[in-house]
Description:
Layout: E1 2-6, E2 8-9, E3 12-13, E4 25-26, H1 37-57, E5 62-66, H2 71-81, E6 87-91, H3 112-116, H4 125-128, E7 138-141, H5 148-156, E8 160-162, E9 177-182, H6 204-215, E10 220-226, H7 236-249
Parallel strand pairs: 1-4, 1-5, 5-10, 6-7, 6-9, 7-8, 9-10
Antiparallel strand pairs: 2-3
Helix pairs in contact: 1-2
Amino acid sequence: MTTILVPYHHDERLADDDIPVRADHIVHVPAGGVGDQWQRNAVVGRAAAAAVAPVVASGQVPVVFSGDCLVAGATVAGVQQAGVDPAVIWFDAHGDVHTLETTGSGYLGGLSLRVVTGAHRELYADLIGLRPVAPERAVLVDGRDLDPAEADYLAVSPTRRIPVSEVAPETVPAGPLVLHVDLDVIDAGEFPGFRFPADGGPSAEAVLSACRRVFATGRVVAFDVACPWWPAVGDQARSREQLVAAMRALLTA
């Protein structure tokens, strides 16, 4: 098992202890990058993809920890660069299917799944070497905190939306899989401290159990985990360490 740490939230370098995992490879990019935010994000994305590709090519399943969901596209790009064409299972409390035309906040993380499936290709996929995944080969798991524009899109999109309880070999796409888990899919009441908390979600154990069912297919080629939280307060650091360890342990179960 190879653990890759991408210690960034978009193009912002996170504190060394923000994501409590011992990594085999840590992605670093030069500070003070030039260009707009898309271009600066692309520097991080290309470096992450370059770290993933040789691991997949060697026959291993990398686990990639980062501070936001945009890195998931880089994980997919790295898998593709290794010669594998994956589908995507996307655990997230949010839809992540905005476009620049629909987002009200302008937060780029809210576009993460949509750009992986081809939106704004010139701003994202083309810059990190990603071949967009067909929308019908993506499944959104437990996206419950949706803006109206996201709900409208998902109502007609071939991207399916299912609850955590329905994740099973027969409900995920065929072929190789990139499993992406934004940890804020966990109910905010159980696990506080996320940048964008969402109540009414599954427990951590329910999420871990669903991930085990995906891994049991034997088709996961990369595991991507986003940790979009604020700096830890009080006992949060220990809770985060335990959750990150549990996620990482899925690859050795």
